[in-house]
Design brief:
Layout: H1 9-21, H2 26-45, E1 50-54, H3 58-72, E2 77-81, H4 88-97, E3 102-103, E4 112-116, H5 128-139, E5 143-147, E6 169-173, H6 178-181, H7 185-189, E7 191-195, E8 205-207, H8 222-225, E9 227-231, H9 236-247, E10 253-258, E11 270-273, H10 277-284, E12 289-294, H11 302-313, E13 318-320, H12 323-330, E14 341-342, H13 346-353, H14 360-371, E15 374-377, E16 382-385, E17 391-394, H15 406-421, H16 424-441, H17 448-460
Parallel strand pairs: 1-2, 1-4, 2-3, 4-5, 5-6, 6-7, 8-17, 9-10, 9-12, 10-11, 12-13, 13-14, 14-15
Antiparallel strand pairs: 15-16, 16-17
Bound molecules: ligand LP7C6HRI and potassium ion (K).
């Protein structure tokens, strides 16, 4: 069972059903879920008084199990319900609680609030009065826990269907759901804790996990570690940031091909003066290049378009970012090379692939399958999708990354890791992870250049 698996509501129900078919008794699974959640709440809150809000479905059933377990531990606990329990398991859990059940709309506040109103079965936003009451109770509590999901978020896509308060902790039952990692729902979850249910889970969508990186081989040399070429353009700073990131990513050597030769910067980067597209082809005629990055600072004029064309025809493994994606989206004569890594933000994604339906995970996966490229669908939540259906979701990046140049650093990291791994999906996942980790290592209000200085520590932590 993978602790990183992300399942939709339907996949979760199928996994639970498979467990039932294999002989697991439904109520036993609810007991397992409730006890595991109770342990998490107990470790955090001990005997501080608790109000558990129980909804009409199995999420509410979890809540009744939690209430009974906490009462057994001597915790002053109250239960307030929203409607009658409608499932067999929830009715059994309520009967086993065998205590008073208040009305959620009139229940007095408590030091700790547990939201067991709705989980993966939510079908629409909460009624306004219910949503307002939930917010009032959570916002007046010292600690708040959402069972499986904050009530009011849409499990499969992370949409917020009604007003949802910010929780201190969300206890994911059995597996992560997309809403735990996709915005805007993820932001409301607070600290994410997974409560395994020990039932078999399969999913080709995973939470991005920390990569295992390796030192270069003892007989490595700069070309065996990989030569990255970066095509520059009118905005020198962007391709300089990307080149510096590639140089600090583990690649062996970085060659920047641009019209300008900067005075300062990292001397390890080789700068080659390339004034026009026709000079670029010669520079790219080098089989030692194992990753070619085009886009940061490329520009959108005719010569930029020509340089992109030369790069696309070069046959080298490609990372396409920024202006390269804009040019690809505008010019139907250009096609996305399969096996490339593309790093679009929302606007670039839509220009390239149009308005696709369903969740960000579904959209990224559809784009990867259609284009044959690895898609790094950037944002506060980044989704990495491979053409074969594999998806990794990074949902906890620092919001300080919303500053100029951080995309250039990510693109450079992707090119560098592609040079090291020669595996586009793995390289993209490693780059997204290192980029996010480097951001957490920087002080607040950092600039993109600061990320470069944090990369060695981020890599060292993964060796
Ligand atoms: N399947 C299992 O044995 C286990 C499930 N777990 C927990 O169960 C929930 C999913 O339970 P489910 O009954 O499918 O849905 P919910 O409890 O989330 O609630 C659905 C319930 O509520 C009604 N409803 C939906 N939206 C609204 C709304 N906006 N207003 C009012 N009522 C609404 C709907 O008709 C249903 O009756 C899962 O998240 C887990 O918490 C256990 O964890 C493991 C065992
Ligand atoms: K809930």
């Amino acid at each position: 069972m993978s602790v990183d698996a992300i399942l939709t509501a339907a996949q979760m129900r199928a996994a639970e059903q498979a467990a039932f078919d294999a002989g697991v008794e439904p109520y036993a699974l609810m007991e397992r879920a409730g006890r595991t959640a109770a342990d998490i709440i107990w470790r955090a809150g001990h005997r501080r008084d608790l109000l558990i809000l129980c909804g009409p479905g199995n999420n509410g059933g979890d809540g009744f199990v939690i209430a009974r377990v906490m009462r057994e531990r001597g915790v002053p606990v109250r239960v307030a319900a929203l409607g009658e329990s409608r499932t067999d398991s929830a009715q059994r859990a309520k009967a086993a609680w065998d205590g008073p059940v208040e009305d959620m709309m009139t229940a007095a506040p408590a030091t700790q609030i547990v939201d067991a109103l709705f989980g993966t079965g939510l079908s629409r936003g909460l009624d306004d009065a219910v949503a307002d009451r939930l917010c009032a109770l959570v916002n007046s509590a010292a600690a708040s826990y959402a069972v499986d999901l904050p009530s009011g978020v849409e499990s499969d896509g992370g949409a917020v269907l009604s007003t949802v308060p910010s929780f201190g902790v969300t206890i994911a039952l059995g597996a992560w759901k997309p809403a735990h990692l996709l915005q805007p729902a993820s932001e409301l979850c607070g600290r994410l804790i997974l409560a395994p249910l020990d039932i078999p889970l399969t999913s080709d969508v995973q939470r991005l996990s920390a990569p295992h990186l390796t030192m270069p081989a003892v007989d490595a040399h700069k070309y065996s570690r990989g030569l990255v070429a970066v095509v520059g353009g009118g905005m020198a700073g962007a391709s300089l940031l990307a080149s510096e990131a590639a140089a600090r990513s583990g690649a062996g050597v970085v060659r920047r091909l641009a019209a300008d030769i900067p005075g300062g910067g990292t001397h390890a980067i080789i700068h080659r003066k390339v004034m026009h597209a026709d000079a670029l082809a010669g520079e790219l005629d080098d089989q030692r290049i194992v990753a070619l990055l085009v886009g940061p600072g490329l520009g959108l004029d005719a010569d930029a378009r020509a340089r992109l064309g030369v790069a696309l025809d070069s046959g080298h493994p490609l990372v396409l970012d920024a202006d390269a994606l804009t040019l690809l989206g505008k010019d139907d004569t250009l096609s996305i090379p399969s096996g490339a890594i593309l790093t679009p933000h929302e606007g670039e994604f839509e220009r390239l692939f149009g308005k696709l339906p369903d969740s960000k995970i579904d959209r990224a996966r559809a784009a990867a399958k259609a284009s044959g490229a690895v898609i790094v669908y950037k944002g506060a939540d980044s989704v990495v999708a491979a053409p074969d259906g594999r998806v990794a979701v990074e949902g906890r990046a620092s919001s300080w990354l919303s500053t100029a140049g951080t995309g250039d650093v990510l693109a450079g990291l992707a090119a560098g890791r592609l040079a090291v791994t020669c595996d586009p999906f793995r390289a993209a996942c490693e780059a997204v992870w290192l980029h996010a980790d480097a951001a957490w290592r920087c002080r607040p209000a950092f600039v993109a250049d600061d990320l470069l200085g944090a990369l060695p520590a981020a890599i060292a932590a993964r060796l």
